[in-house]
């Protein structure tokens, strides 16, 4: 106030005084230092007190946290203890679900305790041990209860689930709890729920499911004679089996489904219709029935078994029965519906139903498989059981459907024969009877059957659905490709060793090739519509089969030629026949060759077509004659005695050679072919000319030559004739004159 007044006074008086200004400065200075002191005081004392307070607060806070933690641990320990106590009480009262839940509570308290860092309490280990012991104890009790509820009586032989052992198997299911347990509610539910809470249900059910499959479900599918039946007693229901004479080898799917439904109904009623609370982490939706759990475990295996051992056998083998199959599909649908209602099955169409509904394709597959199996069996059967084929032989067949009759064909009842000799093309052009005729010969009866199989399968194809028709058509093509691959390999050794089999195989191939020419044709109306580019033909296979037959037979011919040459090689080159030993060797060689040819003539008789027979025998006889001519023409010296003996050897060949031609079993009919030998034996005339030379004098030889125009000139070259003259005749002027004329 003073200062202000003073300032006011001075201002009022407008009398600035130097003295007063100085006073003012010093007063302001004083005030400023007072503020500094106060500031220092605050900084030093109050701030210090604040820091202390904060520190105390933090310490108290930590103290509180520690106490809370200890308290929560004590609380968890107390919870654990209470849970174990309540578990014991519940267990004594057989309240299994409650007991199991208390154990789980104890388990979660222990988990919580173990998760606290920095509190490794010694006691935790002891608690863990205690929990394990109690859990095992509980599982033991539950196991005992389960064994009372579900009793398997199985025959001692553990391994087999044969019909015998299954008939002696029983399954007992407890139905009513005994008096003192009624308080605990239905024991089944309680025991199973407790298993579920402890997470052990899965294991128990899995074992039960496996026994169920092995001793009940699978045998019911496999043994048609097995019948399940139930017997109810006061507190137990028993599932037993008896065996009855089955009507068929395989039970129908309907029968099998009924038996299995019976089993599931019993199980559902007495054991499995129990809703369970699942531990939350396993199942989102919480409640699930036991039936559903069991279904999940066994359905796949059960459905596979039903498909393999029941549905597969029920697939029809001919198209006429396909329509009746609707029943099977219906009963499969019914079966699944029943199982769904009992909650064994969830979701829609299972593999089982898909399989049944897909019957058309299974029918085709089964049919094709049967065809191929039948064909393979025919191909691996003996070749030498033969049948005679004549130009008017036929393949016995049901009559062919009218062209264009399409899908709604019913097979005609009559049985008509499909003739080889008259193939009716387009119904207008009648071909000559022999255009497609096969020469008479023998073929394997298995090949005739194979051909019938091919015709029947194509006939079936024409009456089938498109898809099936295509599959069957290709399986017929497969039959022939299989023959092409299998037969030559499978019968390889015999075809090489046995000339008769080689001949039959040759005929078989020609017979097949012959039929393949027209095979597609008879069915073309039906097949061309659905096979792309009208490829309903087998003609492309024809050359391969002809080649197959030819190659096999030619290989056999090479073997026979080799043997002939081998035998003639022991004839000492036909030289020095005046030596007894040499003559014997040559004679023996010729006898052996004739014997070989005679044997072949017999094994091929009535087997090869006559023209093939004559060509083959002619070729082999020709091989022998050619070899003999070559050897004799190469001799440098032939004495008169040599010439006589060579002549008699040659005469044996000329007289007995034709007799090996016996294409027909009737002797008198073979004469004609024996007289025609020169037609089939290329070197026949050459051989006859050689014999003439061996007996002739010089003049006769010159006459036979007749300036290169005679019969001798037709068979031998000038050089060969000269060589023979030099060997046969001494060196004289007459010989020189004769030689001069051969040119």
Using DSSP, what is the number of strands? 12
Number of helices: 28
The radius of gyration over CA amounts to: 55 Å
Largest sheet: 4 strands, antiparallel
Q: How is the topology of this model organized?
A:
Layout: H1 2-13, H2 18-92, H3 96-115, H4 122-149, E1 150-153, H5 163-167, E2 170-174, H6 187-197, H7 201-222, E3 226-232, E4 236-243, H8 253-272, E5 275-277, E6 287-289, H9 290-314, H10 326-341, H11 351-357, H12 359-379, E7 386-389, E8 394-398, E9 415-419, E10 424-425, E11 429-430, E12 441-444, H13 445-462, H14 466-490, H15 492-497, H16 499-522, H17 524-530, H18 542-568, H19 580-603, H20 610-633, H21 640-656, H22 667-675, H23 677-680, H24 684-695, H25 698-705, H26 711-715, H27 718-728, H28 733-741
Antiparallel strand pairs: 1-2, 2-4, 3-4, 5-6, 7-12, 8-9, 10-11
Helix pairs in contact: 2-3, 3-4, 3-6, 4-6, 7-8, 7-9, 8-9, 8-10, 9-11, 10-11, 12-13, 12-14, 13-14, 16-18, 18-19, 18-20, 19-20, 19-21, 20-24, 21-24, 25-28
Give an overview in words.
It is a single chain. Among the domains are: 100 residues, no CATH class; 177 residues. β10 and β11 form a beta hairpin. Strands 1-2-4-3 form a four-stranded antiparallel beta sheet. It has 743 residues and is of the alpha+beta class. The radius of gyration is 55 Å and the shape is elongated. The chain has 28 helices and twelve strands. 66% of the residues lie in helices and 7% in strands.
State the gist of this model.
Among the domains are: 32-131, no CATH class; 154-176 and 185-322 and 329-344. 66% of the residues lie in helices and 7% in strands.
